[in-house]
Amino acid sequence: MAEIETSGFTKQRQAVLQVICESDDHLTANEVFDNARRILPGISFATVYNSLRYLKQEGLIGEVRFGMDASRYDKNLTRHDHAICNECGKLVDLELKIPDELLRSAAKRSKFKPDSIELTLRGLCPECTR
Ligand SMILES: [Zn+2]
Ligand SMILES: [Zn+2]
Known about the structure:
Layout: H1 11-22, E1 27-28, H2 29-39, H3 45-57, E2 62-64, E3 72-74, E4 81-85, E5 91-94, H4 100-110, E6 120-123, H5 126-129
Parallel strand pairs: 4-6
Antiparallel strand pairs: 1-3, 2-3, 4-5
Helix pairs in contact: 1-2, 1-3, 2-3
One zinc ion binds next to loops.
């Protein structure tokens, strides 16, 4: 089966990765597209989307998803937690020390063999509390 884009690291994928690594936010695919167009004006949304999938598969970016919201892409690949604003949707990284006790009791209740646990703080960001 012939594919147009099988050659590993294309300049499109490079541009998409660059956008994510340079941003301090967790961008949605649409936002990545907007920024990638500044680097490569001819890039299409489909290419951006495919590049995101590729980069995620390769473990170069993370993907976070909350409920029905659009996926957001994350340059931070280590285990971390997030705080999300109920008002404006702002999403920030935070690192919490998760007590072993919490992991143990989550494992016990779910009967899962635990690997990691992530917490999401929901509330109002500093801008929205003002
Ligand atoms: Zn907010
Ligand atoms: Zn994150």
